[in-house]
Amino acid sequence: MKKEDCIFCKIAAGEIPSGTLYEDEQFRVILDLGPATKGHTLILPKEHTANLYELPDETAAEAMKLAKKMALLLKDKLHCDGLNLVQNNGEVAGQTVSHFHLHLIPRYKGDGQKINWVPSEPSREELEAVRKEITE
Ligand code: 5GP
Ligand code: ZN
Asked: What's the CA gap between 70 and 8, in Å, rounded?
C-alpha cells in the first residue's frame, strides 16, 4: 500500500481528526474507534512503516518507552485491573491496518474479552526441534 493511501499516516499527521491522547514529534497516541475495552489506545509512529519487521530500531525503542508512559497514565486515570500490550503483524496475525501500531488494551475484572491464546502441548523433542530451527 502507498503511504498516500494510509489511514494511519493521515491520522498521525493530523489530516484526519482523532481522539488524541498524546502527541510529540515522532508519535500520535489515539483512542481506537472499535475499542476492545474502555480506553483501548493506539500508539502510531508518524513515519510510515508497515510492520515490526520494517520498524527502525530507534522508533521501536521510543515506542516501547511511550507504551510504558501511556500504560501508567491509563492505569492511573481509568483504574484498570490489568493491561494487554498487543502488536499484530500480517493478516493471519490479525493486522488490518498496514501501518505499524501498538495496542494498549486496559483490562477490567469481568470485561469478557479474550486476547489470550489456547496453549498446545508439544513434546520436549518438538520444542527442541523448534529451538534448533530458530537458532541454527
Ligand atoms: P490491527 O487489527 O491492524 O492490529 O488494528 C487496527 C485497529 O485500528 C483496530 O482495532 C481498529 O478498530 C482501529 N481503527 C481502524 N480504523 C481506525 C480509525 O480510522 N481511527 C481509529 N481511531 N482507529 C481505527
Ligand atoms: Zn502509514
From this structure: 19
